[in-house]
Design a protein that fits this description.
Length: about 80
């Protein structure tokens, strides 16, 4: 196993741990489907699910960096 495959495997495992951990930790409250405006939606998203949004944002950033790293051409 070369260095690139090892880094990819570690990144994949960390990604899966972050996604599964976020899903398991977040307490999804059942509720009725009602119409909401943007103010209510933003309050719910950032007050109740702020940690999940933060983890998803960091995960997307790290995966973007990983994609750039993988897409680099190797110099010989």
């Amino acid at each position: 196993m070369n260095k690139r495959n090892a880094i990819t495997a570690v990144a994949l495992v960390l990604f899966l741990v972050a996604v599964v951990g976020t899903i398991l930790v977040t307490q999804w409250e059942p509720g009725a489907l009602t119409s909401t405006n943007n103010d209510e939606l933003s309050s719910v998203v950032f007050d109740q699910y702020g940690l999940a949004i933060l983890i998803v944002g960091i995960t997307l950033f790290v995966s973007m960096l990983g994609g750039v790293y993988i897409a680099q051409e190797e110099e010989e």
